[in-house]
Specification:
With 51 residues, the protein is α/β, with parallel strands linked by helices. The chain has one domain. Helices cover 14% and strands 22% of the residues. The chain has one helix and three strands, in the order E-H-E-E. Strands 1-2-3 form a three-stranded parallel β-sheet, with no helix packed on it.
């Protein structure tokens, strides 16, 4: 996979069907989304940064 889990910042550089993105959104503090995969998921305000 092209993203790593460190607990504070979760960068997404490749979209994968096997990733549970809603679960990631629920527990990650900040997500840097370079593929716009979080567009269809509910997240808190300011949690997803588009790059």
């Amino acid at each position: 996979m092209h993203f790593f889990v460190c607990g504070i910042l979760e960068p997404i550089s490749t979209a994968h069907a096997a990733v549970a993105y809603q679960e990631l959104a629920d527990w990650a503090r900040v997500i840097v989304d370079t593929r716009n995969v979080m567009a269809g998921f509910k997240t808190g305000a300011g949690k997803v940064w588009k790059a």
